Amino acid sequence: MSSRFIRASLAAMATALAAAASGPAQASLSIGAPAPDFTADAAVGGQPFKFHLAEALKKGPVVLYFYPKAFTSGCTVEAHNFAEATDKFKALNTTVIGMSNDDIATLQKFSVEACRNKFAVAADAGAKVMKDYDAALRVMPGMADRVSYLIGTDGKVAAVHASMDPDGHIDAMLKAAEKLKK
Prior knowledge:
Elements: H1 3-22, E1 39-44, E2 47-52, H2 53-57, E3 62-66, H3 73-91, E4 95-100, H4 104-113, E5 120-123, H5 128-132, E6 147-151, E7 157-162, H6 169-181
Helix pairs in contact: 3-6
């Protein structure tokens, strides 16, 4: 391949990513829809474990938030914000887990540095879970869109917040968890 072709391909990909990042995120799972069950490699405080949605729902509602890539600026901001709100979610008996297509080794570091040992992040090997939740970026299906779901103990979607802007996800999920608790 010529260097000109490679540069043109990279420029086209950068343009597509910029367009996706500037536009609104899209989520297709609607409120009341069954939340697909999954098991994934996850980490909290740098320690790996298996996360199983059905098991977590036995303890209370779950916020499952998808984000594009660990250690990028927006994803780090969002992780910090969820970390700061962890005690509020715990008071509502709600578990928070972030999910991306990053490998588990990266997420072990991210769970310490960005998530501040407060909540788990899971590796979506093969982007299967993000596809099941219709949370894949349209222009790059192997990368997650920024979408947050609140899943009730009945296994159904109780709330959705879709926006590439990391601000707003925490407040939307806290308000939904408060409403669900009532």
